[in-house]
C-alpha cells in the first residue's frame, strides 16, 4: 500500500487533464443510469479495497464538520460543542469548521478511527463515489483521486465503461 500511496499523486497528475475533459462531457450529458453505474463500481472497488490498510484520507486531509457533526461528536465526548470546537477545530477560509491539524486527531496508529460511530458526514461518505448525481461533484472527485486509491480506480473503470 505504501508504494501505491507514494505513486498516487503522480498518477493522478498524469490523468488530470484526461479526467477533467471526461467530467466536462459527463456533466453535459450524463448517462441515464449513472447513479446505478457508480453504485456498482463503488461496491466492486470496496470489495477489493480495505480502507484500514490505507487511511490516506485521514492522514493527509481533514473533513468539514457540520453543526450536526459538532453536536453529535461533542455529545459523545460529554463536552459542550463550543469546547469541542476550541479543542479540535478551526474555521477555514470558506468559513467551515475543519480540523486544526492533519493527520486527523482521531486516527489511531492502527488506522482505526476513535470516533468512527459518530464520525463526520464527510468521513462517512468519502470518497463520494457512490453519491447520487455523481457528475455534480467532479471537482471534488478530481481532488479525491490524488488522495484515495479506490477513487482513482473507480474513475479509471468509469471511463472505460462510459466512453
Structural commentary:
The chain is mainly alpha-helical. It folds into 2 domains: 1-57 and 127-162, no CATH class; 64-121, no CATH class. Helices cover 56% and strands 5% of the residues. The protein is built from 8 helices and 3 strands; from the N terminus they run αααβααββααα. It has helices at 2-28, 34-48, 56-60, 67-76, 81-88, 121-125, 138-144, 149-162, and strands at residues 64-65, 89-91, 97-99. A 3-stranded antiparallel beta sheet has the order 1-3-2. Strand 2 (89-91) and strand 3 (97-99) form a beta hairpin. Helix 2 crosses helix 8 and helix 4 crosses helix 5.
Spatial strand order of the main sheet: 1-3-2
Largest sheet properties: 3 strands, antiparallel
List SSEs in N-to-C order: HHHEHHEEHHH
Determine the mean pLDDT. Answer: 96
Number of strands: 3
Percentage of residues in helical conformation: 55-70%
**What separation lies between the terminal Cα atoms?**
29 Å
Question: How many helical elements?
Answer: 8
- How large a portion of the residues is in β-strands, by DSSP E? under 5%
Tell me the overall shape: globular
Oligomer: single chain
Amino acid at each position: 500500500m505504501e508504494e501505491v500511496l507514494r505513486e498516487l499523486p503522480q498518477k493522478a497528475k498524469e490523468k488530470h487533464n484526461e479526467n477533467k475533459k471526461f467530467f466536462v462531457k459527463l456533466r453535459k450529458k450524463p448517462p441515464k443510469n449513472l447513479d446505478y453505474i457508480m453504485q456498482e463500481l463503488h461496491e466492486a472497488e470496496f470489495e477489493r479495497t480495505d480502507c484500514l490498510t490505507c487511511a490516506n484520507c485521514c492522514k493527509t486531509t481533514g473533513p468539514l464538520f457540520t453543526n450536526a457533526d459538532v453536536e453529535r461528536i461533542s455529545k459523545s465526548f460529554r463536552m459542550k460543542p463550543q469546547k469541542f470546537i476550541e479543542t479540535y477545530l478551526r474555521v477555514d477560509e470558506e468559513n467551515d469548521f475543519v480540523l486544526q491539524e492533519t493527520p486527523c486527531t482521531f486516527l489511531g496508529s492502527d488506522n482505526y478511527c476513535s470516533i468512527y460511530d459518530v464520525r463526520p458526514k464527510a468521513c462517512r461518505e468519502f470518497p463520494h463515489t457512490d453519491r447520487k448525481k455523481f457528475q455534480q461533484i467532479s471537482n471534488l472527485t478530481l481532488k479525491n483521486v490524488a488522495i484515495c486509491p479506490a477513487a482513482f480506480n473507480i474513475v479509471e473503470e468509469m471511463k472505460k465503461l462510459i466512453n
